[in-house]
Design goal:
It is a single chain. The protein starts with 6 loop residues before the first helix and ends in a 7-residue tail after the last helix. It is flat. The chain has one domain (5-34). The chain has helices at residues 7-15, 19-28. It is an all-alpha fold and 35 residues long. It contains 2 helices and no strands.
């Protein structure tokens, strides 16, 4: 995921079980907002 992800969406995705994928994508391509 290249575009910035809002934290509310991030936590919502984690609750839905997509956190691991989000984290994996982030480690592979860290958004500039988290650099």
């Amino acid at each position: 995921m290249v575009q910035d992800t809002s934290f509310p969406e991030f936590y919502s995705d984690m609750m839905e079980g997509h956190g691991d994928r989000w984290i994996g994508d982030t480690l592979a391509n860290p958004p500039s907002s988290l650099s």
